[in-house]
Amino acid sequence: MKLLLDIGLSRVKWARSQNGSLQQQGALEHHGSADHIFYLLESKELADADSVCIAFVGEKSTQERLEYLIWKHWQIAAEFIVADEEALNIFNGYSYPEELEADRWLAMLALHNERLPVCIIDCGARITVDVLNNLGQHIGGLSFAGLKQLHLVAAQARGQKLTELLGDHGQGFSEDGFLATNARDAVFAGSFYSVVATLDRVAQDLQQAFEEGLRFILTGGDAEQLQALLNFEADYRPGLVFEGMVAYFQKKNQKKLAV
């Protein structure tokens, strides 16, 4: 059994993969440290894996510490995905391919057998937008602060911790009575409208550039709640990065068998 991990700036997501099929997925918020991430993995009893594959976004020191902990406690050499120039007929558009984050690369690989062109919007702590043309060429992308980062900046500006700003209400938002009557709701409503307005404008510009045929896919922890507020149609694919991992390893195994 292969353990697949998608570790972003604020969440660790996992899935089990057996014979090319995804099983038992989950996600939890993490505090940013490798020790806390590993603690979360241990708490979910994920140590029975034969191998560990990781899409990691964060500091190099955190990655190295996590790699050490997995080896020390599980005796597994974790494999960290790095973006290539090309895989599965998907072509990386970055001048330096390895600079493209692994989760964005894997999300694109997940669509290698699907209808193109496509725009992938990953709604995590940071929001990324990537576009593949009809030939599978990654023509570029965008990256900007998502809801979690906007909330964090707002809390810091008020001299608060994020947990103090959130209170007992979490990060939800409703369009009902969207003009806020307290500081917390004002921050949350403003953050949602900022993100939604940006994504709507990006989608509008892309639709004009492609004229027709461009479809949109949403993924990431905040995608589902943002989807209802957007003025364009998009499919929600929460496991897109894991789908890309499965495709990546299937191709890798085929190459090994061909040698």
From TrEMBL:
Binding-site residues, substrate: 94
Main location: cytoplasm
Keyword Membrane among record annotations: no
Reaction(s) catalysed by this chain's protein: (R)-pantothenate + ATP = (R)-4'-phosphopantothenate + ADP + H(+)
Residues that, per the record, bind K(+): 122
Residues that bind ATP: 6-13
CDD domains: ASKHA_NBD_PanK-III
UniProt superkingdom: Bacteria
Catalytic machinery residues: 103 (proton acceptor)
InterPro entries according to UniProt: ATPase_NBD, Type_III_PanK
Enzyme class: transferase
Note on how the cofactor is bound: A monovalent cation. Ammonium or potassium.
Subunit structure, as described in the record: Homodimer.
Function (record text): Catalyzes the phosphorylation of pantothenate (Pan), the first step in CoA biosynthesis.
Record protein name field: Type III pantothenate kinase
Provenance organism: Piscirickettsia litoralis
Lineage: Bacteria, Pseudomonadati, Pseudomonadota, Gammaproteobacteria, Thiotrichales
Gene label: coaX
